[in-house]
Amino acid sequence: MTEIHIRPARTSDVHGIKELVAPMAAERILITKDTVTYYENIQEFVVAQDAEGTLVGCGALHVMWEDLAEVRTLATSPAARGHGVGGRMLEELLARASRLGVSRVFCLTFEVPFFAAHGFEVMANQETIPPEVFTELLRSHDEGVAEYLDLARVKPNTLGNTRMIRSVTPEG
Ligand SMILES: CC(=O)SCCNC(=O)CCNC(=O)[C@H](O)C(C)(C)COP(=O)(O)OP(=O)(O)OC[C@H]1O[C@@H](n2cnc3c(N)ncnc32)[C@H](O)[C@@H]1OP(=O)(O)O
After folding, report:
1. In angstroms, rounded to a whole number, what is the distance separating the alpha carbons of residues 14 and 55?
2. What is the average pLDDT score of the chain?
3. From which residue to which does the signal peptide run (predicted)?
4. CATH number of the domain at 5-167, out of 3.40.50.11890, 3.30.2350.10, 3.40.630.30, 3.30.10.20?
């Protein structure tokens, strides 16, 4: 495998991210988004690029609340898996979380051993959210927030997935 470079995503990566995600979305492992949503959220993404400039991985960190963010759309192309690319992208997203001042990072995944190897633990189902924060989060139109809150309307997205969380030390 050629050397892989992990870097913040640019607008020109949207096409590659969509191509990478499409087969996994078809398998219902990941959720695809409208192109406009990828552009709007491009600053949340990191990508992994090989020496030829081909995009072989992507991942995003979405801030939900003062102390809480979610890892989303973490994917390595099938040919590049098992070489540490996913792990490096995840560690970069966790470093971002720390720099942003977040102290907990959530994910919803089928890849439980992978996330566990990076410090995530399976969430107790009724992890306490202060009622005032719960009420504020309910105002969000974001599907991921609804998934975090375990709302009935997103159950089809979350079926079979495991809710996991880990602490990070906020910078500063
Ligand atoms: C919150 C969300 O985004 S959930 C969605 C998660 N993504 C998906 O389900 C999409 C489909 N899956 C994937 O794209 C990938 O399998 C990912 C993103 C989960 C992992 O990506 P990879 O690039 O394969 O990760 P990485 O190589 O760091 O680790 C995979 C395994 O290879 C092992 N590994 C890491 N480096 C090496 C290496 N140099 N040599 C051999 N094995 C290695 C790791 O120990 C790891 O094992 P584990 O899963 O038992 O912990």
Report:
1. 10
2. 93
3. none
4. 3.40.630.30
